[in-house]
């Protein structure tokens, strides 16, 4: 190795020695075992892949060196493991408590009253358990996709569950007092679950703090991973950021739309009611619209995505119409019994749908500018820096040191 006058060693990269392989840029992972010197002039870069059947790529996916098929994602860095551990422990603790309260409390109240009061408790606790499990699934998906914005959304969602946990105590206590006429007995029933229900927001508050800190650490890690795929193209990076935000919004949209419609259906419970039929139809419409929106955005289908936006406007109109009826038209139906939680879910769903519509327009403005190919490569786990094909690890490249 010879040093130049500035004291900096110069290295020249030669393309692969095989004549039938076109030159391409590669991302190398240098290790002592992979380097071998020849007469002190150049260094051979040997096969960097593992000799075993199972290898792990830079995104943490276990893949096969034989057929290239990816298997289940396993967090493989300090901060991804920390985030996954925090969410799993929080989910186990909170779902365990909520499930025990759900079964035990309803067994006692069903002996007294089987009307709308116990139905409210079923909806509160059941929806809460579903939210915690759905958040766990979204956490895994965010880590697998390296979506920083989805992680930020999960932190906000976890804080919302923390707030809902506090409101839940008030709602359950009022419901128990309403069902059990005897004050002494109602206080006794409430006392059996008070500590456990207090622990739920405590665990969620602690989990939220940990998730925020780890998300801040993961932001840099994921940004570097995306940078390696998209390189230094700032405009393409911005377009991919808009796409990531859009996909994250769609995933949160589904839960809050489903939660809103479920509470409306439980409050009406009349299969012949016009309101029941309209809101029941909104559930499959939401599933179709949100699923196809992600597909059409990824494939850059402008007209099809615009149709999905119209369907989302219809869902939003249905939610606003129901809220208007509950607050301004003097509705005396069962909607009033779900007023607090329904208002919370409807407000969040409205905000998310409006944000999604705005982001849809932004995504359409980025269509046909090269992002489609990058998204396809990222989803197939191929590096964007070598679009002509995957690098053949059997071909050696050389660094000649001048």
From TrEMBL:
Alphabetical keyword list: Membrane, Transmembrane, Transmembrane helix
Protein name: Uncharacterized protein
Region (Disordered): 1-25, 381-402
InterPro entries membership: UPF0658_Golgi
Membrane-crossing segments per the record: 78-97, 117-137, 149-167, 198-219, 240-264, 276-297, 304-324, 344-367
Top-level lineage group: Eukaryota
Keyword Isomerase included in the entry's annotation: no
One cellular component (GO) term of this entry: Golgi apparatus
Lineage: Eukaryota, Fungi, Dikarya, Ascomycota, Pezizomycotina
PANTHER family found in the cross-reference section: UPF0658 GOLGI APPARATUS MEMBRANE PROTEIN C1952.10C-RELATED
């Amino acid at each position: 190795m010879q040093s130049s006058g500035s004291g900096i060693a110069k290295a020249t990269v030669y393309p692969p020695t095989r004549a039938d392989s076109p030159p391409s840029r590669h991302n190398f992972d240098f290790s002592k075992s992979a380097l071998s010197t020849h007469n002190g002039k150049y260094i051979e870069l040997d096969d960097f892949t593992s000799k075993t059947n199972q290898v792990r790529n830079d995104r943490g996916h276990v893949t096969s060196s034989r057929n290239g098929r990816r298997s289940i994602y396993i967090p493989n860095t300090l901060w991804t493991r920390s985030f996954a551990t925090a969410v799993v422990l929080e989910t186990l603790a909170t779902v365990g408590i909520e499930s025990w309260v759900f079964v035990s409390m309803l067994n006692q109240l069903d002996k007294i009253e089987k009307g709308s009061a116990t139905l409210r408790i079923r909806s509160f606790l059941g929806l809460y358990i579903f939210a915690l499990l759905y958040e766990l699934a979204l956490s895994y998906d965010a880590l697998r996709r390296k979506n920083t914005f989805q992680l930020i959304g999960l932190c906000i969602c976890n804080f919302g569950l923390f707030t809902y946990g506090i409101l839940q105590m008030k709602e359950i206590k009022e419901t128990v007092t309403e069902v059990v006429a005897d004050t002494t007995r109602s206080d006794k029933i409430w006392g059996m679950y008070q500590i456990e229900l207090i622990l739920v927001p405590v665990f969620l508050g602690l989990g939220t703090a940990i998730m925020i800190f780890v998300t801040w650490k993961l932001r840099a890690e994921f940004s570097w991973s995306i940078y390696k795929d998209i390189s230094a193209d700032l405009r393409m990076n911005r377009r991919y950021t808009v796409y990531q935000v859009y996909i994250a919004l769609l995933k949160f949209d589904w839960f809050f739309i489903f939660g809103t419609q479920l509470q409306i259906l439980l409050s009406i419970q009349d299969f012949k009611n016009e309101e029941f039929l309209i809101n029941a139809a909104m559930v499959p419409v939401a599933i179709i619209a949100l699923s196809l929106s992600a597909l059409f955005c990824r494939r850059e289908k402008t007209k099809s995505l615009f149709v999905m936006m119209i369907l989302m406007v219809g869902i939003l109109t249905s939610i606003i119409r129901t809220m208007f009826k509950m607050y301004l038209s003097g509705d005396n139906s069962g909607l009033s019994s779900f007023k607090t939680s329904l208002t919370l879910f409807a407000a969040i769903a409205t905000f998310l749908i409006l944000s999604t519509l705005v982001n849809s327009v932004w995504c359409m403005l980025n269509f046909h500018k090269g992002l489609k190919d990058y998204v396809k490569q990222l989803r197939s786990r191929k590096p964007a820096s070598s679009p002509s094909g995957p690098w053949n690890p059997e071909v050696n490249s050389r660094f000649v040191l001048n």
